[in-house]
Amino acid sequence: MPFQTKIRKARVVYSPFSAxxxxxxxxxxxxxxxxxxxxxxxxxxxxxxxxKAGRVTSRxxxxxxxPDYKSRRGFQPIRDWVSFVASPRGRMKVMAAxxxxxxxxxxxxxxxxxxxxxxxxxINNGRERQFGVSPKDREALVARVREELAGRPVVxxxxxx
Length: 161
Known about the structure:
- The protein is mostly helical.
- It has helices spanning 19-38, 66-72, 94-97, 115-127, 135-150, and strands at 98-103, 108-112.
């Protein structure tokens, strides 16, 4: 008598999305998050707090602050995680390092692919929480998921007798 395997436990997992679909959903959420951060908004969809202005020395001289340096170089003087400092030795800028890291049928991981940028983002997020899913980001995510589910057939499960 040949050997036969006995199945004692069975688990059925249905995922309506492929890894590629989940990656595209993650990319749309990522675009929403990046757009919000570049507009200078926090995770509550409110304006982020202002950058620290320059200070006055003991001799009464006004020193420039970070908003002044950013506006002189043509950038918005807001907390938007965009740095005017040139990237030395080919290092990535923070917002360029924010990408979809991993996608499977069950989940999508969004994060920073460069360790240096990850540390910078962690410090910036400690000052003002900007990296995360805001209510408007969640609405965009739900709309994207509904769009993906719209053309799919409904699956019905019936117990076999």
